[in-house]
Amino acid sequence: MSGSSVSLLFLELRLPGRPLTIAGVILHDALDQSVVIKMREHWEGVAEPEDQEVLSEYECGLRQLANELGADAFIDHLSSSFANTVTVSPEYRVNRPEGDKEHYATMLLEKLRFDL
User: Fold this and answer.
1) What is the residue extent of each domain of the chain?
2) Which of 50, 82, 96, 104 could bridge 3 with an S-S bond, Cβ 3.0-4.6 Å?
3) pTM
């Protein structure tokens, strides 16, 4: 049995003087109105120490916002209101395998060579 089609968005970190870094992924399943947010856990070498604490709490804030707004409104909000430091890529449609979406999001980050 195959999985479902979901939207994949990348959270892109754009810090001055540093290369663009993929900070996380968002999976949006319009069928069941769910959003899965997974961000890297380690920021050493990516951001200055004073930014690392803020970035480490970012995932929790995004999850709370998604719960408050609902899946579709959350995705619309991301596309229109992100700051220059963290941006959102265009949506990509992907077929995900059957199983847990959280696991799939983690697997995507691992394939992008994140140190989770």
Assistant:
1) 5-99
2) 96
3) 0.82
